[in-house]
Each structure stands twice: as C-alpha cells, then as structure tokens.
Design goal:
It is a single chain. The protein is mainly α and 247 residues long. The chain folds into 2 domains: 80 residues, Helix-hairpin-Helix base-excision DNA repair enzymes (C-terminal) (Endonuclease Iii, domain 2); 101 residues, Endonuclease III, domain 1, CATH 1.10.340.30. Helix content is 57%, strand content 0%. It has 13 helices and no strands. Helix 2 runs antiparallel to helix 8 and helix 9 packs across helix 11. The longest helix is centred in the middle third of the chain and has 19 residues. The protein is elongated, with a radius of gyration of 23 Å.
C-alpha cells in the first residue's frame, strides 16, 4: 500500500531541504513557449532544449507564427534535441490546432491539451502547473523511480502513479512535489542512488530495508540467468556444428 499521507508529508519535507526552490528547469516566458519546450524535451535534456529555444522563439514567437512554419526550417533549429523530424511535425501541428481550435491560446484544460499533437499527460501537467495556474502532477521516469523507492507508489504506470501521488498531497503542492521528485532523481536518487547523501533515507524503504542489500550467494538476476542460458545454448550449438574441412 502507498505510504500514509503523514509519511508522504514528512518525505516531501525531507526532500525539500535538498531542493527548496524546486521548479522546472525549462526556460519559458509564457504557456506557449513552455508547451513547445516540453515537447522538445522528450528524449533530450532541459539544458539542450534551453540552448535551442531562444532562436526558435525569436523566429516563431507564437502559435500563429509556428503554425505556418516550414518544417525543414524548424528541424534545423531544433536538430540538437534529437528526433527533430517528429518534434518539428508535433510543434507545428500543435500550433495549427491551437490556432484553429483555441484562437492561438494554450487552453487551461487537460482534455484539450492532450488532444494536441505530441502532447501527453506529462506535458499537459507541466504546462498546467507551471504556466496556467492549474494544479498538475507531471510524472516522468525520475518521479516513477524516486516515488517507488520511497514507498509512495507501487506501480510503474505513469497514470496510476499520478493518481496515487495526487491522493497523497494537497492540490496546491502537486507541482512542487513533482518538481522536487524530478530534481532528486536527477541529482541524488539516480539509477545508482547516493543514499548516503539523501535527507529522506531514514524514511525510504529502498535505503533502509534491503533493496540495496547484496544478493545471497549464488543468486542471479533474471538478466543474468537469461545471459547464462544464451551462452550455454551458443556453446552447445558450436559444439554440435561439424568442423569445416581444411584445404
């Protein structure tokens, strides 16, 4: 079961001592810029996105401008973020929908946002919570990893995780808690965590109760067992193969 809200509050307080001013690290001046920047951040880094968006928004400052952009030009401007063709198609497409369906404005509504090309719940929650004043709880890989280790969630499904986490915290804290978990996942609780540095380690089942303990002698992970089985199969096949005749 997820941690009681009392424990969840204590965990947030402990993590907040690491990241007292947690916020998105994407640079933006309005909801449109944050929407586009968040789409560009997929499979990239906020730093890299922040390097390309000034030139992008200088040329295409709003949805009406980007809606009429040439895809090749946008691809060139955002190339450094990766997957530039798909992203160019998405940001031009979402701009066209904003113009045709919302008079160029970014709607403060989850259903309307996720109907835009390239926009999922995570992106919508980022924009709602940081630019539109609507409580949102973005769930990315960092949130999933850190919240699971802390015992706040027991799922790797982003939508189920969002539902569980929003039940633990007041709406006014949703965006701040998400930002804090994201920064903690980037800076301290990475794939190989620095548990000795974490102020929440005494509240964390992963750090306290054995998820980090060494496996018993002879125990192997599924990956190791699979690799061993594959190696055995390959060895057997090699042994069964008749030798080539020498010339």
């Amino acid at each position: 079961m997820p941690a009681p809200s009392r424990d969840a509050a204590a965990i947030f307080a402990a993590l907040a001592t690491h990241h007292p001013d947690a916020d998105t690290e994407l640079a933006f001046r309005n909801a449109f810029e944050l929407l586009v920047a968040t789409v560009l951040s997929a499979q990239s880094t906020d730093r890299r996105v922040n390097e390309v968006t000034p030139a992008l928004f200088a040329r295409y400052p709003d949805a009406r401008a980007l809606a009429g952009a040439d895809a090749a030009d946008v691809e060139l401007l955002i190339h450094a973020t990766g997957f530039f063709r798909q992203k160019a198609k998405a940001v031009i497409g979402l701009s066209q929908t904003l113009v045709s369906a919302h008079r160029g404005a970014v709607p403060a509504d989850m259903d309307a946002l996720v109907a835009l090309p390239g926009v999922g719940r995570k992106t919508a929650n980022v924009v709602l919570g940081h630019a539109l004043g609507v409580p949102g709880f973005p769930v990315d890989r960092h949130v999933l990893r850190v919240a699971a280790r802390l015992g706040l969630i027991h799922t790797d499904d982003p939508v189920k995780a969002e539902t569980a986490l929003t039940a633990l915290y007041p709406k006014a804290q949703w965006t701040g808690v998400s930002d804090t978990l994201i920064l903690h996942g980037r800076r301290i609780c990475g794939p190989t965590p620095s548990c000795d540095l974490c102020h929440a380690r005494q509240l964390c089942p992963y750090a306290v109760t054995g998820a980090r303990k060494a496996r018993p002698a002879g125990a192997r992970t599924t990956k190791a067992r699979t690799s061993a089985k594959a190696a055995t199969t390959a060895t057997a096949a090699k042994a069964a193969k008749p030798p080539r005749a020498r010339r």
